[in-house]
Amino acid sequence: MTQAIQNKTGFYLEDLSVGQKFTSDHFQMTEERIKRFAAEFDPQPFHLDESAAKASVFGGLAASGWHTAAVAMRLLVDGGLPLGNGIIGLGGDLAWPKPTRPGDTLHVESEILEIVPSRSKPNQAIVKVRSTTLNQHDAPVHSFTSKCLVFKRP
Amino acid sequence: MTQAIQNKTGFYLEDLSVGQKFTSDHFQMTEERIKRFAAEFDPQPFHLDESAAKASVFGGLAASGWHTAAVAMRLLVDGGLPLGNGIIGLGGDLAWPKPTRPGDTLHVESEILEIVPSRSKPNQAIVKVRSTTLNQHDAPVHSFTSKCLVFKRP
Q: In this predicted complex, what is the ipTM?
């Protein structure tokens, strides 16, 4: 089993291989952060108010899925996916299998699934990466299998 | 051609049909908003600094894709996708065909693609919705084809 790479920087296309794994630092979701993000971007009762959330399908306060996705991105940028040219995502497949709750501690585990070199631009490739955000019980709360634009070392 | 529905509220499962279209209000992305979101969730040079962004593949300052996605969610919650029980997404397919730029005015157009009633829970269904975020030139900057949990009128 491959050891996951943690908090390195400066991986370019020639440093990547299918099956490579990366692990991020940890981030704590707080009730204050959940409500602040929701107030700006996703002001629905189950993200803002405990009693409304209890009566909802979530059964309690839950972070906006977009908040969890944004926190996952921050963990990737801070060393969780150490691409030398930055993380440039074109899109992908996103899922929220469980809600993120106040107090949850999140981290992201990523794996390189596929590397497709560009036919016209020899210095770049589309790299498919699956990033799974896990809570402190190692339960996935978010996953994103994305196509990233990755360059060779300049 | 179906007229898109704008800023209505309280659509439940029995009000939805395949092919139905909804249109959101508009939202202006500013440089200040782009940099503030990026500083918190996606602190990469091309989202934070004009000269770094000019030298990057973006060719100029670009919003984090997660910022565009979060703004799209706000537009949907504010009447762009008027579901009576709220917008509860399970996941889906996301793309960023073009960057969002400072000064862009965004709105979201949504279409109901599929309605799959639950076998075990007669009061709910999974509704597949494609939401496309467009800029002031009607160019798509973000799309999300999501599976939403939708309930019958209580």
A: 0.95
* 3-state per-residue secondary structure call for A25-83: EEEECCHHHHHHHHHHHCCCHHHHCHHHHHCCCCCCCCCCHHHHHHHHHHHHHHHHCCE
How close, in Å, is residue B4 to chain A by CA atoms? 22
Bridge pairing between strands A21-28 and A5-6: parallel
Q: Are A9 and A65 in contact (CB under 8 A)?
A: no
pTM of the model: 0.95
- C-alpha A140: how far from chain center: 11
Quote the CA–CA distance of A15 and A149 in Å, as a whole number: 14
Q: How far apart are CA B70 and CA B151, in angstroms?
A: 24
Does A75 contact B at CB distance below 8 Å? no
- A57 in Cβ contact with A31 (< 8 Å): no
Residue B140 · residue B106 · CB < 8 Å: no
Query: In sequence order, which ranges of chain B are alpha helices (DSSP H)?
Result: 31-41, 45-48, 50-54, 65-75
A84 touches chain B (CB under 8 A): no
Residues B16-56 have pLDDT tens digits of 999 999 999 999 999 999 999 999 999 999 999 999 999 99
